[in-house]
Amino acid sequence: MNRILQQVISFPHMGNYHVPITNLLNHLFKNHIVLPAPPITKRTLELGSRYSPEFVCVPFKYNLGNYIEALENGANVLIQAGGGCRFGYYAEIQELILRDLGYDFRFIKLFGNKLNYYKLYRLSRTLGSDVSYPQFLYYALLTKKMIEKIDVIEEYIRENIGFETQENSFEHLQEEFLNELIKVNTIKSLNKTYKKYSGLLQSLPADKPGDCLKVGIVGELYTLMEPYSNYFIEKELAKNKIQVSRFITVSFILFEKPRLKKRILKETGGYLEFEIGADGTDSVAKSTMLAKKGYDGIIHIKPFGCTPEVNAMPMLQNIGKDYKIRYFISVLIPRHPRPA
Ligand code: SF4
């Protein structure tokens, strides 16, 4: 194959979701290279902060840093998604910045608020995929199911890892599970892998008291789901023998939220009459639910520049007071100024 014509496809990181995305792209683009951005480090953030608009919201900077490092590694096709807040403008601005920096690449903006499988299929064909539409739908379904399985496994890990009795036993199994998922080709083998690791995880020794401290984490999606960006808060809480619950996941955002919008507003328990954008409404709804369930603490994570999460703050403070939440902590992820 002519290396010059070969596409090297890359995308930014968020938690462990590079695994299902890599799996999907490998199936769709067998003749091309799929190269996830290198894992996030201090350098990623420095690069992103150096070349981003100073006051843009924080996830933009992480994504931009991922792109620069991916381009340095040889990527020539970059993929970005989009959403209902400023996320919807990320792609255009990031493309302009990267072109100004002199990189030569193709930039693909995937979707706005709604998943349209046929449009995605057409797009994949223009990028050189040779799978048929039924095959495309099968791999899309495999990816959806893989994301759901990852989210279920990670929910179990979050709630129990703080109580493991063999150091790093949960993390080792999680790593093995993710490594196996990369190679999964069929829904049947996905289910088999899931069943195996779900059973192995549940059989790991853990010493979890019934009255352990329970903390729920709410807030902006990226900084909730990308551990580097929230200073590995879930890990830190677990080290202190705390059960951590988080309900914002990709399964929730992509597959559940679109059909539950009205219900989510109701679940805010009267604290909100109208939606406040992005994940702000979810933060209020989930905090109400955590408060009703008697959680000891709620941590609200919001990155600098995130209007929807700032909008949610007064309601969250009221929930904290009304339900007498023992620990209500609001965490602002700083704007990460341009390095000198
Ligand atoms: S949710 Fe907030 S931080 Fe995230 S992209 Fe939208 S405005 Fe930016």
Structure description:
The chain has 340 residues and is an alpha/beta fold. The mean pLDDT is 94. It folds into three domains: 8-131, 3-Layer(aba) Sandwich (Rossmann fold); 137-208; 209-340, Rossmann fold (3-Layer(aba) Sandwich), CATH 3.40.50. The chain has helices at residues 18-28, 42-51, 58-72, 87-100, 117-126, 133-160, 169-182, 187-202, 221-225, 233-239, 250-266, 280-292, 307-322; strands spanning 8-10, 33-34, 77-80, 106-109, 213-219, 242-246, 297-303, 327-333. The strands form two sheets. The chain has a four-stranded parallel β-sheet with strand order 2-1-3-4. It has a four-stranded parallel β-sheet with strand order 6-5-7-8, sandwiched between helices. Helices cover 52% and strands 11% of the residues. The chain has 13 helices and eight strands. The longest helix has 28 residues, at 133-160. Strand 3, helix 4 (87-100) and strand 4 (106-109) form a beta-alpha-beta unit. Helix 1 (18-28) runs parallel beside helix 7, helix 7 (169-182) packs antiparallel against helix 8 and helix 12 (280-292) packs parallel to helix 13. The structure holds iron/sulfur cluster (SF4). Iron/sulfur cluster binds at residues 57, 59, 85-87, 220, 222, 278-279, 303, 306-308. Residues 57, 59, 85-87, 220, 222, 278-279, 303, 306-308 line the site of iron/sulfur cluster.
